[in-house]
Specification:
2 domains, elongated, 2 strands, single chain, two-stranded antiparallel ribbon, binds zinc ion, mainly alpha, 3 helices
Length: 92
């Protein structure tokens, strides 16, 4: 009987660990419990982990790492485009 209960509890715990609720709970606990976790200002889905570099002075985490990475990728694209334009201008 005790074995049966233990199995049921273990199964329940596994299901809970895999659920989205436990993920949210972990975020809340990591954040001190009662403080609302600041979400990314760009996607609003992930917790903000890096400050918005465009708001200097107050380094508050505003964007999540994936949006930050996307931004960096956008920078790279701009730089490459600029580089290409300069190369063409010099060649002409
Ligand atoms: Zn984001």
């Amino acid at each position: 009987m005790a074995d049966f209960d233990a199995q049921r509890v273990a199964k329940g715990l596994r299901a809970f660990a895999q659920s989205r609720l436990s993920v949210g709970l972990c975020h809340a606990l990591n954040n001190g419990g009662n403080v609302a976790k600041k979400m990314c200002e760009i996607c609003g889905e992930k917790p903000a982990t890096v400050p918005d570099r465009e708001r200097m002075g107050r380094l508050i985490n505003r964007v999540c790492s994936s949006c930050h990475a996307l931004r960096l990728a956008g920078d790279m694209k701009r730089i490459l485009e600029l580089h290409e334009k300069r190369r063409q201008a010099n060649g002409a």
